[in-house]
Amino acid sequence: MSRIGVFVCHCGTNIGGIVNVPEVVEAAKAMPLVAYADENKYTCSEVGQGSIRDAIREQKLDRVVVAACSPRMHENTFRKTVATAGLNPYLLEIANLREHCSWVHSDSKKATAKAIDHVRMAVAKVARHESLFPKQVGLTKRALVIGGGITGIQAALDIASAGHEVVLVEKEPSVGGRMSQLDKTFPTLDCSACILTPKMVDVAQHPNITLLSYSEVKEVRGFVGNFEVDILKKAKMVDHKTCTGCGTCWQKCPEKVTSEFDLGLGQRTAIYIPFAQAVPNKPVIDMENCRYQKYLKWTQTEEGKKPPECRICEKLCPTKSIAWEQQEEIVTEKFGALVVATGFKTFDHSVYGEYGAGRYPDVISSLQLERLMSAAGPTEGEVLRPSDNTHPKNIVFIQCVGSRDDKVGRPYCSKVCCMYTAKHAIMLKEHDPEVQCYVFYIDIRAGGKDFEEFARRAQDESGAVYLRGRVSQIYQDGKTLKVLGEDSLIGRPVEIDADLVVLATGMEASEDADRLAQTLHISYNIYNFLIEAHPKLRPVETQTDGVFVAGAAVGPRDIPDCVAHGSAAAAKVIGLLSQDSLTTDPLTAIVAPMKCVGCFACKAVCPFNAIEEQTTRDGRIIASVNESLCKGCGLCVVACRPGAINLRGFTNQQLLSEVMTLVRR
Amino acid sequence: MSEDNSPLVIGFLCNWCSYAGADMAGTSRQAYPPNIRIMRVPCSGRVDPLLIVKCFEEGADAVLVAGCHPGDCHYTEGNYHGRRRFALLRDLLDFMGIEKERFRIEWISASEGKRFAKVVSEFTDEMTKLGPRKVG
Ligand SMILES: Cc1cc2nc3c(=O)[nH]c(=O)nc-3n(C[C@H](O)[C@H](O)[C@H](O)COP(=O)(O)OP(=O)(O)OC[C@H]3O[C@@H](n4cnc5c(N)ncnc54)[C@H](O)[C@@H]3O)c2cc1C
Ligand code: SF4
Ligand code: SF4
Ligand code: FES
């Protein structure tokens, strides 16, 4: 006979304010097999946990129910508590009285009735728990970092410096991410390239880091400590082993196309590096625009005049590194931990009709302005209007473009736009003292070290005029742009003749973030930002062990936060990889050999290939579960008609007993 | 049905998405009727249709199964298996004389606390209107 102890938590007033805790305790005492029940102000506190340990010893309890907050919050805490009192940690069950009860119901009587039911279910279930013993498995002491922006770079460097091997996968031809497109950075105005480039070079040179640029993650198998990842290496058409990055090819390539890196403001060649400080500093060939490729394709269709064969790069390359035979390839690598740092992209402002829907050349995005201000940019740092290459004097900024706007499905704040707009106003005045900036804003959000002072400086020292209100229309009038808006503080419409309009476009999740998250089995929100295991307490972990998230891929963040986040993820990875073996979750499936008829319906549904064949002594072939592969989903259990396979911790008998406590009354 | 004639709803929520979504409803204080009793299961694919039949046999008025959105199952395909099995279950319920509306399957992610509350509220309201299940 079991002796079950039930511990009901007030959680301050969080539970006790709605649920009548003493009544739940009394009801628990009357439940079958319950030997002891008590209440605590805060069960998770040292005092609360101590009272559980004492009761286990004094009352000779052999199973415990904690009725408190969500098991997703404290199941592990209480498993450890009962373990220190000598019980098997799996002889514990949690009844969720907070998230699923007191926080969502206001009728005290009904909430108490529900709380009692939840305790009743937990008691029925815990009575059927068995002692479980985790196993030890080995692990691969290598990490994969996906995304080579500042976040991924920081994470890779930290992990590598702790002595572990790192593979850094970046889908573009160079690492650097969005930060490499920036000119100066708030609030210190240090030059972005000056602080980023050395880190990019470190990544390329670190003996523990393998950089796979122009590559993407395709498939992920396995589990924490033992992931197997298929990485697609796109065809660069250049042999990076022999290429010295001399630059002859991209200087001589005759095919010019718009540069993605310069956001349409500049040009690059068909064989290219995206920007001068790119890492690796070796080119790739853009197969869509390469003249030789067009020539090859043309011969197949045999129409019109044959274009020239070109192959200039091949002829001029001093190391004969052009590799037309190169194919994309998939490599499979093993890792113990994964970090996702895929960053963000900026909102596409062409959905805003009132701002010209992307039609006016002199209405640009803030990231485009960064390119214009950058000394390494298409105008070599001279801020020129895209339409006529003149110096703009009256410049209007509009904040919250694609942020805090339900209309375009982006109700969240992008966090960095207030600050980078202030930066732009300050920098433009420095570039040209005749410039006058106007900033339309909703609120100025300058929470951060030295941020408020910085935002003030834009107004007080650089003379930017801040207008609180929305812009209703922009239209082209000759060479100027008429900006019609409202100053809501004085309640009057305003009209400004602008030479240039800059839209502070918000941050969105990167392309394909949802697909990658699905591949990794991690969650993402409706905007495709990745979801952390706990927003406050586990900011870089995910619900999937061994997969960590960091940087702007999780939500809008500035550089200092991204760097901290990257290092935080690295610290978690280093902690994981410093272990010599990992403890596996024992909540796996198990086959009862006598009941198994060998139909292998289980094997057909198991997503992890965990079902294996086994021959019994009497020569029958039956199923058995490979516990290090089983993830405990329970699909096999439902598939098994003879009821031969069961899931530890969620057995058929346990689920049934929970149901029976509810309905048989 | 309990004494005040409010329906007994049993909810099976997958640990990774919908249980977390229900937690999110709590954290953000999204209220819903207190009729539902929540069971945590690893995956919507762990829910045996026969267990749901059992719920009805024993007097539950309604059953909700909630899991991750298609494509988002923590175990990749558990919810696809679930979806197929539950489609068959509907016919079985019909055959047993249990109104199909009493069984519902929903995809609710970890961030959809508000939607969880909405789903449970609407489902409970509908069940209240439908009245108690005629047993026997
Ligand atoms: C106009 C503008 C100005 C800004 N100014 C400042 C400033 O002054 N100060 C400041 O602190 N912050 C500023 N920021 C914010 C700053 O840009 C971000 O905080 C920072 O770049 C985020 O870094 P990240 O590494 O997380 O993401 P990213 O920089 O976006 O890097 C992500 C990387 O991952 C790669 N990637 C994406 N998906 C995949 C995939 N599936 N597989 C492989 N690789 C992938 C991308 O190609 C990219 O290289 C500004 C932002 C904008 C838009
Ligand atoms: S489904 Fe059941 S009976 Fe069939 S092989 Fe698997 S465990 Fe054995
Ligand atoms: S519970 Fe069953 S189906 Fe799921 S991983 Fe384990 S063996 Fe495979
Ligand atoms: S884990 Fe949520 S449906 Fe499978």
- List of distinct ligands in this structure: flavin-adenine dinucleotide, iron/sulfur cluster, FE2/S2 (inorganic) cluster
Biggest interface, CB < 8 A: A-B, 53 and 50 residues
- What is the count of helical runs of chain A? 18
Question: How many structural domains can be distinguished in the coordinates of chain A?
Answer: 5
Tell how many strands the DSSP assignment of chain A holds.
34
CATH topology of chain B, what is it called? Rossmann fold
Give the distance, in angstroms, between the N- and C-terminal Cα atoms of chain A: 23 Å
Topology order of chain B in helix (H) and strand (E) letters: EHEHEHEH
Mean pLDDT over the full residue set of chain A: 94
CATH class of chain B: Alpha Beta
Class by SSE composition of chain A:
alpha/beta
Structure description:
The complex is a heterodimer of chains A (about 675) and B (about 140). With about 675 residues, chain A is of the alpha/beta class. Chain A has five domains: about 5-125, Rossmann fold (3-Layer(aba) Sandwich); about 135-235 and about 330-345 and about 510-580, FAD/NAD(P)-binding domain, CATH 3.50.50.60; about 235-325, no CATH class; about 350-505, FAD/NAD(P)-binding domain (3-Layer(bba) Sandwich); about 590-650, Alpha-Beta Plaits (2-Layer Sandwich), CATH 3.30.70. Helix content of chain A is about 30%, strand content about 25%. In chain A, the strands form twelve sheets. In chain A, strands 10-7-6-18-29 form a five-stranded parallel beta sheet. The longest helix of chain A has 20 residues, at about 110-125. The mean pLDDT of chain A is about 95. By secondary structure, chain B is an alpha/beta fold. Chain B has a single domain, classed as Rossmann fold (3-Layer(aba) Sandwich), CATH 3.40.50. Helix content of chain B is about 40%, strand content about 15%. Chain B contains four helices and four strands. Chain B has helices at about 20-25, 50-55, 80-95, 115-130; strands at about 10-15, 35-40, 60-65, 105. In chain B, strand 3, helix 3 (about 80-95) and strand 4 (about 105) form a beta-alpha-beta unit. The longest helix of chain B has 18 residues, at about 80-95. Classes of the chains: A alpha/beta (about 675), B alpha/beta (about 140). The interface between A and B is large, with 53 and 50 residues. Bound molecules: flavin-adenine dinucleotide, iron/sulfur cluster (2 copies) and FE2/S2 (inorganic) cluster. Flavin-adenine dinucleotide binds near residues 182, 186, 341, 344 and 560 of chain A. One iron/sulfur cluster (SF4) binds near residues 598 and 642 of chain A.
